[in-house]
Model the fold of this input.
Amino acid sequence: MPVYEYRCHDCRRRVSIFWRTFSEAQSGTPVCPHCGGTNLTRLISRVRVVRSEESRLESLADDSFLSDFDEKDPRSLARMMRRMADEVGEDLGPEFEEVVGRLEAGESPEEIEKAMPELMGEEGGEADIGEEL
Done:
């Protein structure tokens, strides 16, 4: 069952149309589901590629991933963190979004640590690395 995307020139909306067969999609006339117009242009749809976890992790290890990273620039750190999150493909939660948002605004990691001590695992700030669990 093919799905094609179109731009309706009558209502200017982007629409998706489901066709029963490929031959019907080739010979049929698309109709806008919003306004009923037939003045549609077929668009090139985005393609999504499913990748294995191994492939995603390999791309993180690639040298080009960190080529524009500047450890002294909070915005650069935020870009890298967003790319890593995209590669992992999981929702990292509201704390992650808050930290990255603060970095994008130019706040330093040290300022964020002081403002959010709960991120370090203890209410008082930095945990003692030598401390046993």
User: Anything to note?
Assistant: Residues 123-133 have pLDDT under 50 and may be disordered.
